[in-house]
Amino acid sequence: MPVERTEHRGAEELHRDYQVYETIGSGGFAKVKLGRHILSGEKVAIKIMNKKDLGDDLPRVKVEIEAMKNLSHQHVCRLYQVIETSTQIFMVLEYCPGGELFDYIIAKDRLSEEETRVFFRQIVSAMAYVHSQGYAHRDLKPENLLIDEDHNLKLIDFGLCAKPKGGLGYELMTCCGSPAYAAPELIQGKAYIGSEADVWSMGVLLFALLCGYLPFDDDNCMVLYRKITRGKYDNPQWLSPGSVLLLNQMMQVDPKRRITVRQLLDHPWAIKDYNSPVEWRTRQPLGHIDEDCITEMAVNMKRSRGSTTALVKEWRYDQTTATYLLLLSKKKRGKPVRLRPEPTVCEDSCSPLHQGLQAREALHFSEDEDAVIVGSLDFGSDYIDDCPCTQVKQYTPKGVRGQPDGAANHKDARPAEKRYAYSPTPERGRTPAQHRQDRRNRDQERACENKENKENKENKENIAVQEKDVEIFALPPPRTPVSSKKSARPNKNVLTTPNQNAHVNGTKTKAATPKAGGSASKEHIKKRAAEFKDLADVEILAFSPERRSRSLDMAVTEDSGKKKKRGGNVFGSLERGLDKMITMLTPSKRRDGPRKIKAQYNVTLTSQTNPDQILNQILSILPEKNVDFTQKGYTLKCRTWGDFGKVTMAFELEVCMLQRPEVVGIRRQRLKGDAWVYKHLVEDILSSSSI
Ligand code: H91
User: Fold this and answer.
1) Which of 81, 89, 85, 13 is nearest to 50 (CA)?
2) Is-above-0.70 flag for pTM?
3) What is the 513 CA–ligand 1 centroid distance (Å)?
4) Which domains does the chain have, with CATH numbers?
């Protein structure tokens, strides 16, 4: 097949099945974007790799994909779908909004023994399972453990994992992983047993959790290796005797004297306060097929349950696998086992493929990534649980469903043709099939309307906003919150204001300027917004660099600082959002100050109240630390360079205002590079800036 053709089809497949949003991180040669699986409405992480960039590392990606296809466990990040084109590989993965365990540890300095135990049991569980499947991970570190929405750990990055042909007892030779976590036998280049080396890394990880720093550390690799091979480290005084003993059992230089994962399962330290061994068996065996998920898929695909089951059982890691696994994940979290209905009529313009294309059109990524400006209707993935008359699940905009008295539909003043929620009075006598058809029709209607409203323009600067850029589409860009606490989710009607041309300390920053015509007609926007205002709660998002950095920020929730009183809608009123959008579009009304945020774990508090002073201090210290940066308003995109002109580290520092206490904060976000080197560098910058 010609190159362009596979390329086109692969990308088409991705955009047909997913809405793709901003970059949320990067690892090696991969870029990870936030996405939403259109059919299930579920958020996903999309790992994107360019084959050319991968070069000799391509086999590692294949290893990772094969391993992840075989691993299904509550503490292992789930692979849903793989799309390969002639130039790229997309891995669709379980989304973990809590980010890396590493960031969690450094934000807390160190964890208590109790909290460490919760995490450690999960790590032991994951590793016992991975080993039971014949794999060694070989790159265990807190950066490779992500926190999901329930604050549970998920193991990632199986690119270095090994499955010796004769089983895990067979020795391996490749030296890999991060030096600080590598077992002595591994760095000495000896043959080693993968599972034994993993236990050493788990010991280093346990130390990092309890202490907030590494047991073996040095800038000089040779010195570091010597420390590791000697196996001597200091136990800080806050460690309990039990912790000291366990660490010692795990970090034994002689692998034969090292404790095994099996022994860790019911180790006295691990079972303290639990009185039960670690549960390591999978709660989600690959062979098991869930009937509810099959039924929903069968209805959606208009196939028999038998043939749907057969299709799912092929485990091709295509759209079928992803849909099944995402439905299963919804069910596990107590959400309705429902898919967005596929439209049946108007096949040309409203087919899933077409919708996918729409989604793609809706998000024009600039060279690097982000889209322009997006307004979206949040039809979310929630449905009215049961239709009172027919017991069929129904689909309704979230805003309507949110009414406590269930009378939302009665208040719906929209013209009938614009109404997507079910009609006010329960339609007695409508069959489940008719209801499903209604659902499809509404969906299709919505898709058509979305198309009508779509005129997004690509903008390399990311933030040029014009009237025609106002977008409406069926699924809201997922927020990238990341606090594990659901209550800490950001406001639903988020609207960000790019700090265009912000003047900081009298210097014009590098922020991009709006394209000509950047000030949108207020009336037009209001009219546009009014069209969808009453359909559902509305989310308007500017995919500007600022939005991106906010999204990257794992835990910052923006808060306008005003109490939301109007309208009683928990998500705030559209007008407010609209006003903000107009503010954003009107150059004269640009917001100049730093963002107001709530204190979160990646924000360092200062005792000062003047953001410009703090910004100046940081700006003056960065060159001293050999940190290259670009400034966008109060955000500094920082980079360090290695000897061969390669970026060794990338991170963001953003000066922002906290509300309680009202002081300046510095939000930090690592994008690339060694986590501990980053930690030390940022600490150094902040302490040198006398913050
Ligand atoms: N590190 C080793 O930055 C540096 C949020 C976020 C949310 C994710 C789900 C899966 C993956 C990453 C997520 C993620 C790499 C994932 C899974 C596998 C894998 C890779 C990523 C970073 C890359 C970005 C990650 C965190 C780890 C965020 N990330 N924000 N859900 O191989 Cl299996 Cl590279």
Assistant:
1) 89
2) no
3) 32
4) 1-95 (3.30.200.20), 104-282 (1.10.510.10), 291-421 (no CATH), 468-585 (no CATH), 596-688 (3.30.310.80)
